[in-house]
């Protein structure tokens, strides 16, 4: 119902600012994960999978994080049990804290 009542032509002026915000957020989360978090959590395979989860959380929500981590694990053929045990509960707890 809400989507049906939207007047798209009135929202067109927001397209450029939204694209700019999305690009800046993407660049920031990638730099943060690669240069700050990855070295802090060990520079190993588990750290790489956890960083991919962080990028998923940063650009979406817990399902995005799980999809990113799953893609990395499928690409290299090794499942990081540590990452799959740490990232989802931490992300869910942080989302629960922020949403209240």
UniProtKB/TrEMBL annotation:
InterPro entries given in the database record: GltS
Keyword Mitochondrion: no
Keywords associated with the record: Membrane, Transmembrane, Transmembrane helix
Molecular function via GO: glutamate:sodium symporter activity
Segments crossing the lipid bilayer: 12-38
Gene Ontology BP term (one): L-glutamate transmembrane transport
GO cellular component: membrane
Protein name: Sodium/glutamate symport carrier protein
Gene name in the database record: gltS_2
